[in-house]
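Researcher: I'd like a candidate sequence for this fold, 305 residues long. If you have to choose between options at a position, lean toward the conservative one.
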């Protein structure tokens, strides 16, 4: 057995030393977090591994959009799986601002003022639905003139090449990193696709092309790894496809969900082993907590290595 060490930090301590101290301390989630960083680092350095990053849209409504953008700019991950709201927030914030709020605000008052709340983030109507409708109306006409059928990852590239460098969709296009959106109709951009379809009945979003693309990537990969933030469809789509390659070789979950209700979002990595979605001998860990706290620390720890 290894003894529990006291954490020792002074004015000269750097981030790498802090993470090492957290691992040696044996302190509950701190140790798990330190081990997660070690697994992520090993995964990113493994040239034989196809690397997934999945996350829900709420992350992109926060300043952690900048962390995801930098990860994509540095080509840390080969493929992204996320929700339609990610596209919504990324496009909206490319042109308009979101604002600081509070979890305890009066939501009736906010609704009357045309302000939407995401936790403690405030999103005025003209910073979301209105600007998305304006831009997508224009862009979909341009896309339609070139092709009548498109997958979600191709749609992301088409949008990305029309955005600025502060956008994750821009870096998806620039670095040829596919973003798969299995629930493409569940959001503002998805609604605009439906609206466009009303007048262009030959326009198609081919989600089965996304699945074929995923299948080809997974089957041709030697190994698989994933940093999976949150739960829902983006999490499940990664581990679902991974089972056809006998599971992930590396897996780090970050979640605030509980497992007692049997939810996919709350399921820990070891449950996925029973399904063959994570290998029995995989390097894996679940870290409980808020990804908006963890992501900047993970990023800093990795770039300081």
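Model: Candidate sequence:
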């Amino acid at each position: 057995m290894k003894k529990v060490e006291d954490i020792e930090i002074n004015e000269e301590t750097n981030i790498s030393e802090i993470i090492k101290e957290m691992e040696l301390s044996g302190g509950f989630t701190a140790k798990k977090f330190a081990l997660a960083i070690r697994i992520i680092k090993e995964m990113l350095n493994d040239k034989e591994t196809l690397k997934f990053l999945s996350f829900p849209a709420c992350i992109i409504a926060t300043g952690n959009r900048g962390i995801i953008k930098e990860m994509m700019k540095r080509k840390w991950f080969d493929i992204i799986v996320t929700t339609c709201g990610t596209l919504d927030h990324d496009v909206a914030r490319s042109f308009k601002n979101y604002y600081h709020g509070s979890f305890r605000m009066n939501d009736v008052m906010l609704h009357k003022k045309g302000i939407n709340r995401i936790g403690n983030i405030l999103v005025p109507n003209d910073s979301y639905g209105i600007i998305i409708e304006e831009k997508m109306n224009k862009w979909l006409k341009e896309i339609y003139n070139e092709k009548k059928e498109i997958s979600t990852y191709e749609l992301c590239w088409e949008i990305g090449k029309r955005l600025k460098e502060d956008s994750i969709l821009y870096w998806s296009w620039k670095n040829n990193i596919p973003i798969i959106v299995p629930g493409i109709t569940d959001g503002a951009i998805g609604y605009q696709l439906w609206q466009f379809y009303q007048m262009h009945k030959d326009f198609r979003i081919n989600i089965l092309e996304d699945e074929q693309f995923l299948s080809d990537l997974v089957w041709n990969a030697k190994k698989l790894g994933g940093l999976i933030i949150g739960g829902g469809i983006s999490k499940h789509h990664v581990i679902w496809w991974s089972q056809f390659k006998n599971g992930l070789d590396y897996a780090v979950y970050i979640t605030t969900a509980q497992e007692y209700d049997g939810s996919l979002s709350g399921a820990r990595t070891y449950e996925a082993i029973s399904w063959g979605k994570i290998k029995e001998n995989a390097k894996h860990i679940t870290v409980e907590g808020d990804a908006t706290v963890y992501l900047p620390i993970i990023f800093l720890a990795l770039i300081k290595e």
